[in-house]
Amino acid sequence: MIDLSPLVAAPGASSLPYFDPAFAERALVLHAARPRRWHPGTPVLLVHHGVGRNGRDYRDYWLRHVDPANLLAIAIEFPEASFPQYLCYNFGNLHTAEGMANPRRQWTFGIGGRLFDQLRDQGITTTDRYGLFGHSAGGQFVHRMLSFGYRDRVAVAVSANAGTYAMPDLATAWPWGLGATEVAADDLRALLTFPLTIMAGTEDTKTTGRFFPGGPKSMRQGPTRHARAHTYLRRGRQAAAGLGVTLAWRLIDVPNVGHDGRKMSDAAAPLIADALRRNAEC
Description:
The protein has 282 residues and is of the alpha/beta class.
C-alpha cells in the first residue's frame, strides 16, 4: 500500500506517484491541494482533468478554493503512457481496442472509490462520502462512471463541458448510450434519481478544435458541447418520465465561459463546498 500521508503533510500543493490495486503496473499521479486548516474530517473532492491529462493544472485550479471551501482536493492524473487514448479514460476501459469486454475490476471508473478507501484506511479522512468534479474528458468520465453504479459514497458530482454523453437510453449502444452494457431498467432509475449536476459554459460552442468529438454519432447529440449538455438533460427527463421517476439532475449554464477548466472549476466550487458541508452535517 502506498503511503498517502505526503498529500497532507503541509498546506498547499503536493504530488505523489500512485498505483491503483487493479492496475499495479500503470502509474497514476495524485496532485493534492491541502487547506491550511486541514484535519481528517475535512471533506474530500476528487478532480478529473480533461484530454490534456494535466492533473497538476486542475489541482492548481482548485488550490485557490480549498481554504474558503474547506476541502481537500485531489486531482487524479491518468498519464497517456499508462492509460492511452479515450478508451481507458473517457470511456472507463470497458472494452479493449478490439471491442472485447473487460471485467468490471479493470474499469477505470473504480479507481477513485478505491483511492477514497485507502484515504480512509490510512486515517487521512474520516468522512463517509466524497465530492466529484470532472471537466471536458473528465466530465465524460464522471457521468459515465455514475451511470454504472459508482455512486454510493459520492456526496456531490459535477460533470462540466463534456464532449459527448452516454445518454440514459438502453436502446442506444455504448458509449453514446447505455445499450449493450450491464445497465438495466432498475439501474437506470437509480441513475436518474441521483443528484447529478451538469455544468455547461454558454460559450462552449467552438467545433474546430482537434479534440472536439465531431463524428456522426457525436453530432447527433448536438452541434456543440453546450448543446449536448442540454440534450443530455432533455433525454434524462424523457427517460425519467418513461420509468415513472422524478429526475434529480440539474443543469447549470455558466455565462460567458467557453471550454475553460479553470473558470468551470471556479463556478463549481461554491456549490460543491455547500454540498460537502451539508453532507458533513448529516
